[in-house]
Write a structure and sequence with these properties.
single chain; alpha/beta; six-stranded mixed sheet; two-stranded antiparallel ribbon; 40% helix
């Protein structure tokens, strides 16, 4: 991409529905409103629109919003994001779109990327966009969501699901994870990590929703597994055994495994693989190391092992991943106002 070449930012339309949660509405604007290319140009353009003509939209807070764009804006979007709302009416109660919402969504062009935050997934499901797909929503709504939409394969133990052109996220703050993932998918880990840093959130959260499901509060005096995780991250390039991680917390393997799953929402082995995949991605994007070197540095040992794990986790080979994210990828410039 050159300063003189054709340039058009990726246009993200956020559909504001009555009863929306202001926090969730703000997530796309915060995450997509930060990335810039090497010339200082914003990589995304974020616009908010209503399912009605421009005007008032109620929130679940003690204030309303004036939304200046109507549903026709959806026809101009490359990505449409639907945050949660507490006033979905027939969408939530009966699993069907209102006439107003159906007309609004008819403006969306074929091939547009669709995403939902929390119970915004009800809108995508009622529109038939999730039939035959994996999807997620807030864990507290997952069983009801599955009953209402039996054609959807609901997974309540993840923060978000990327099914290509349709993405869904779990409750509230998982929308941040989803939006950062889309930035990472569009422009690479370096850009997404810088956005996360400026937003003061982790670029990638461990585990899934299981760690947030209501359960008896553990004794605060009991040891956690944080020390073991930090120890493992510092030596991903080395062979790491479960007993070695448990030893860092002076726990038995059985106790450590149980406590780890409670805290991270996944097993130690699955977590370790996730961290090694992330490390391999960073090295593929930011270095010229050979595949064998990347495999060793990320702890997979061999290029073949790394290829199998990346293919499973990302759906692409290491070579294809590097080609995608190392060729003329834009870089992010510092936030002009990092305090906001």
């Amino acid at each position: 991409m050159t300063a003189d070449g054709d340039f058009r930012p990726h246009r993200v339309a956020v559909l504001a529905l009555d009863g929306l949660l202001p926090f969730e509405l703000g997530i796309p604007h915060r995450i997509f409103g930060r990335p810039r290319d090497a010339y200082g140009r914003l990589l995304y353009e974020v616009v908010t629109c209503s399912a009605r003509p421009p005007g008032r939209v109620d929130t679940d807070a003690d204030f309303t919003l004036h939304v200046p764009n109507g549903p026709q804006t959806l026809a101009t979007a490359d990505t449409v994001i639907i945050p949660a709302s507490y006033e979905l009416g027939p969408v939530y109660e009966e699993g069907r779109l209102t006439d107003e919402l159906a007309i609004a969504l008819s403006h969306v062009r074929p091939g547009t990327r669709l995403a939902s935050i929390c119970t915004g997934a009800y809108v995508l499901a009622a529109a038939g966009c999730l039939d035959g797909r994996r999807a997620t929503t807030h864990w507290a709504d997952a069983e009801r969501f599955q009953r209402m939409f039996p054609k959807v394969e609901v997974d309540a133990n993840v923060l978000f699901i990327d099914d290509g052109d349709v993405l869904t996220s779990a409750g509230v703050a998982a929308g941040i994870d989803l939006c950062l993932h889309m930035v990472r998918r569009d422009f690479g880990s370096a850009v997404a990590n810088e956005v996360a840093r400026s937003t003061v959130v982790p670029p990638h959260r461990d585990g899934g929703q299981a760690q947030y499901v209501q359960r008896p509060v553990p004794d605060p005096q009991l040891a956690t597994t944080a020390t073991a995780r930090a120890w493992a991250l510092a030596r991903l390039h080395e062979p790491i055994q479960l007993r070695d991680m448990a030893a860092q917390e002076a726990m038995s393997v059985r106790t450590f495994t149980r406590r780890f799953r409670e805290e991270a929402g996944t097993s130690p082995g699955q977590w370790l693989t996730q961290q090694r995949v992330e490390r391999a991605r960073q090295l593929l994007e930011s270095t010229e190391l050979s595949m064998d070197q990347v495999a060793r540095e990320s702890g997979f040992g061999t290029a073949q092992s790394m290829r199998q794990h990346l293919q499973t986790a990302l759906g692409v080979t290491p070579t294809a991943y590097r080609r995608t994210f190392r060729t003329d990828r834009p870089t992010i410039t510092p936030d002009p106002d990092p305090a906001h």
